[in-house]
Amino acid sequence: MRLEQCSPATVAYLGHDVNDAAVRRRVAMFREEGLAVRLGGFRRGDAVPPGGSPDEIVDFGKTADARLVQRALRVLGNVLAPRLVQRTCDGARVLVARNLEMLVLAWRVRRRGQRLVYECLDIHRLMLGSGCKSRLMRWIERKLLRRADLVLVSSPAFAREYFSARQGHDQAVLLVENKVPISQRAARRDEETRAEAEPRASTDTRADTRADTRAETGAGADAQASPRVVIGWFGMLRCRRTLAELARIARADVPDPAAVSGARVEVLIAGIPSQAEFPDFAEQVGACPGLRYLGPYTPAQLPELYAEVDYIWAIDYFEEGLNSEWLLPNRLYEGLAHGAVPIALRRVETGRWLARHGVGLLVDAPEAELPQCLLEATGTRFEAWRRAVAALPTEALFQTERERKAIVAHVMGAAHD
How are the residues of the chain apportioned to helix, strand and coil, as percentages rounded to the nearest 5? Predict the structure, then answer.
């Protein structure tokens, strides 16, 4: 008698940056669902973080944000000499390629019978231009799309406005939103239980504590009676217009100061700034009154961060009119999961998501509308917004076990077997 043992199916995951938290979350999800995962790809940092065994992460080399020529040369080098890519992909049942550069490498080493999945969670401006480079990149992507078995997107607008309308792709596209892992739902329940026992104070009643803090730093007697509204901007920090806009909102003159008793808006910033966009981010923030930068953070620090804010900034101008119009950012789900009220543009996909779910503060012109709106939205109005956030169904914010299994089934090609 021969005893046989089932071994987990292997997925090769090719990431544009193996240090990226979103890449590691996706790999973790696959592993938690019973798949064996080999991660390979480029890195933005100086080192690859530990991932368990030495064979779990294959380093393709270092690349940098906003240096497309350097990245293209790195990709070309791996196309011509694909030893590291082959090491990642050999024997895998499915190849998952995050972003176009990794799709090129996956196609280069793909063998007969291997399933190819293209994960596209951002549409770079280069893919949307009218010049020769943009047309060439779209042509390459169209050719490879015909060879892909499945496309993963994080927003329905990517499928609708780009893959269908611009690339003519009418094959399988799976929506996988940037939801919070269901394992973090327990932490939210604990917060809700504590809130029921000792309700969180409104913006008005928290003003005394915040005023005391400002008094200790020499803000003066007038500030002691001033309520404070705090906006959080967390995550990947890459939008220069957002920084400028938040700085102006924080120091804005309120149209009718007497109506809000000298209340003020402050901004708490945490995360990793793009070196390409902000070579001196800490210094820039330090020069802006009302803004405070805490530096990078770990997932374990998120509850503490969100406890300090009333609202989360869910506006992005980085690819204004293009990618920024279509995306549903990670901070949307993360902020809501921690009880913050999102601020978003009404006209973009994020605003439409919030409108469908009946939550959030939607604006058309943030600088013109927010200073007065935020400072007047205290007491019962703010608490009504928070109650709407707390009432959101679990599946709107969290990636449930059922959804995770469905995602894995589609990626592995088992959903329609």
Answer: 45, 20, 35
Q: Is the torsion defined by CA of 269, 329, 206, 366 positive or negative?
A: positive
Q: Hunting for tokens 């967390």 — which residue is that?
A: 234
Complete DSSP assignment for 45-97? SSSPPP-SSTTSEEEEEE--TT-HHHHHHHHHHHHHS-HHHHHHHTT-SEEEE
User: What integer is the mean pLDDT of 39-58?
Assistant: 70
Residue-wise pLDDT tens digits, 271-284: 989 888 898 999 99
Residue 234: both structure tokens together: 């967390």
Instruction: Summarize pLDDT for 279-312 with one digit per residue, the tens.
Output: 899 999 999 989 999 999 988 899 999 999 999 9
Residue 171 has pLDDT above 70, yes or no: yes
- The Cα-based distances of 387 to 202, 304, 305, 354 in angstroms read 12, 20, 20, 14
What is the C-alpha radius of gyration for the chain, rounded to an integer number of angstroms? Answer: 23
| Alpha-carbon span 344 to 366, nearest angstrom | 9
* pTM for the full predicted model: 0.83
Q: Which stretch of DSSP H or E encloses residue 155?
A: none
Domains and CATH numbers, the chain: 10-178+398-412 (3.40.50.2000), 182-397 (3.40.50.2000)
Alpha helices by DSSP H, listed for 154-279, are 156-157, 185-197, 207-216, 221-224, 240-250
Q: What angle do CA 349, 350, 355 make, to 5 degrees?
A: 95
Residue 262: name the closest of 222, 290, 292 by CA: 222
pLDDT at 214: 39
> Rounded to the nearest 10 degrees, how much is the dihedral formed by the CA atoms of 68, 72, 75, 79?
170
C-alpha pair distances (Å), 393 with each of 155, 175, 337, 390: 19, 18, 10, 8
Predicted confidence band of residue 98 (pLDDT cuts 50, 70, 90): very high
Place of tokens 């895998």: 92
Determine which of 139-143, 151-155, 255-259 has the lowest per-residue pLDDT on average.
255-259
